[in-house]
Amino acid sequence: MQRRVAHVAVAAVAATAAFATAAQAASPTVTTRTAGTVRQTAATLRGTVNPHGTPTTYSFQWGTSATYGQQTPNRSAGRGTGGRDVSVRVGGLAPGTVYHYRIVATNADGTTVGRDRTFRTALPPATPPAILGTAPFAPYANSVTLTALLNPGGAQTTYKFQFGTTNAYGAETFAATVPAGVQPVSVRVPLSGLQARTTYHFRTIASNRRGTVVGPDTTFTTGPFPPARLGARTQPTRQRRSHPYFITRGVLRLAEGVSVADGCNGIVGVRFTNGRRTVAHRRMRLASGHCSYRLRMRAVPPRGKSKLRVHVRFYGNAILTPADARTYLVRFR
Predict the structure, then answer these.
(1) Which residues neighbour 242 within 8 Å (Cβ) at sequence distance 6 or greater?
(2) Is 3 domain-assigned?
(3) pTM surpassing 0.70?
């Protein structure tokens, strides 16, 4: 009986020693806790670290997204075997902004990362909103997108656009809202059903609980607009009948104020003619965001003729009218 008790006692001591060794040979355990004392420009990041008996350091990663980008200096969490509450005060934050953070702890047995948490910094006392800028975007023949840059002034803000063919306006968009904050917010409203080739006036009106502001009068003109110039060149300018191949290339030059994204889309066509007769014709679509084109074609004049005239045409799009390049001749020998 005494021998059995002795064996049990030895087993218990061995299990206790094994548990202690395992506890010492473990990476830290961490918990990211709720942030404390959150102000307009500062907050306290809090967490819990269990070093499991090994000297351990900790830090906090933080930033305006879950990729963080900022990290506090390493601090010691000691070498205890129980959870220890830790905290770091961070400053230089933007008011009314959501921040992400998590705790990270490291010892000789590894690194442990806590789960992501967030907090929002406090807002300053509300002020009337500010309209920092307005602009039309992509005016087409019958539509446009009105844009504005607003600062909500620390309170939920309602905005709308007034528009019309004079500065008396006469029409307005439905009201929309942006949340409370002090960072500039870009807003936009698409309009359709407009008259082609017409100048419109518009302005922005923004309101919150501290007041209403009216933006400046701004104008835009609907399309379609003529391109500045359609360039074209065909090579060779003299060709053999036995090898009647030509390459026509050029660039669509846009008028001022027309973006490449809006203007450089559509069809370019090349025709070779002899008198009123078309002997070759081919079209291609401009690649998105590119204003240049290149077409390789086979063109043979009628028997007894030695010249062909080259015609290049841009067929227009929602914002540009069709345009023709200057015609020219190619010859055969």
Answers:
(1) none
(2) no
(3) no
